[in-house]
Amino acid sequence: MLYCGFISTLWKGTVSVLRRRLAVLASGRGSNFKAIAASCRRDDFPAEVVCLVTDNAKAGAISVAEEYGIPCEYVDAGSRRGRLQDGAEEEIVRRLREYEVEFVFLAGFMRILRTELLSAFPGRILNVHPSLLPSFKGLHAQQQAFDYGVRVAGCSVHFVDDSVDGGPIILQEAVPVEDADSCESLAERILAAEHRIVPRAIELLASDQLRVEGRRVLGTDD
Ligand code: GAR
Questions:
Q1: Residue 194 alpha carbon to ligand 1 centre in Å
Q2: What's the pLDDT tens digit per position in 107-119?
Q3: For residue 187, which atom of ligand 1 is closest to its CA?
Q4: Burial grade of 40 (CB within 10 A; 0-12, 13-18, 19 or more)
Q5: Ligand 1 atom nearest to CA at 130
Q6: What value does the mean pLDDT take over residues 12-21?
Q7: Whose alpha carbon is nearest atom 17 of ligand 1?
Q8: Gap between the Cα atoms of 1 and 74, Å rounded
Q9: Residue 10, number of CB atoms within 10 A of its CB
Q10: 2, exposed or middle or buried, with CB in 10 Å at 0-12, 13-18, 19+?
Q11: Nearest residue by C-alpha to atom 14 in ligand 1
Q12: Number of C-beta neighbours around residue 25 at 10 A
């Protein structure tokens, strides 16, 4: 047993040295960012959040960054809803490079990426979306699912490509819709599921367990 303990200490020590450098982009309240930051405090977690980038100077995510001692970068992305103004994406890439970022997680970043980020981090940008993709892409996905009357809603973490919410899916969690649900109560349970699959997807990516074959992402089995 003593021997095992020694090995596990050594192993943990090695993993903490090999933490991959992750940036989180967030526009809003930051609960997924918080779930990521909390997971990164685990000794055996293979990633660390090296910076938060936000396009919203009033984002709740900024307080989360303060709470966890994570540097925060604000980038003015312009006033066009859902879009990045010219130069904004180049500016984000420039700042991410300063932090020597390897992976990027979009945790409620409400702007569509254009080419600069995608080409700077090919296959290394992940997004969480509050629906079982490919259903209910775009804004207000929980409301779309609720209004449609689905019996099973959920959330997805996927690779980001040049489509909107259309890249290869890494993890999904189903959330059954109950008779007594309002859209708000359903969205709350979907969010709790997001907080489970988001850190797990990062863990899989950062420990090089994922393989993309066409649209399929392999290596996610427990
Ligand atoms: C989350 O529900 C996330 O899935 C969604 O924004 C919310 C952010 O919440 N993202 C999208 O809809 C992207 N298409 P949070 O700020 O508390 O993490």
A1: 9
A2: 999 999 989 999 9
A3: 2
A4: buried
A5: 4
A6: 66
A7: 31
A8: 49
A9: 10
A10: exposed
A11: 129
A12: 27
DSSP the chain: -HHHHHHHHHHHHHHHHT-EEEEEE--S--HHHHHHHHHTTSTT-SEEEEEEEES-TT-HHHHHHHHHT--EEE----SSTT-PPTTHHHHHHHHHHHTT--EEEESS--S---HHHHHHSTT-EEEEESSSTTSS-SS-HHHHHHHHT-SEEEEEEEE--SSSS-SPEEEEEEEEPPTT--HHHHHHHHHHHHHHHHHHHHHHHHTT--EEETTEEE----
Structure tokens at 48: 């660390």
What Å distances lie between residue 54 and 46, 65, 105, 109, 111, CA to CA?
A: 23, 11, 12, 8, 11
| Residue nearest atom 10 in ligand 1 by C-alpha distance | 108
Active site annotation includes 129: yes
Does the pTM surpass 0.90? The reply is yes
For 39-49, the pLDDT digits (tens) are 999 999 999 99
Q: For residues 107 and 53, what is the distance between their CA atoms, to the nearest angstrom?
A: 10
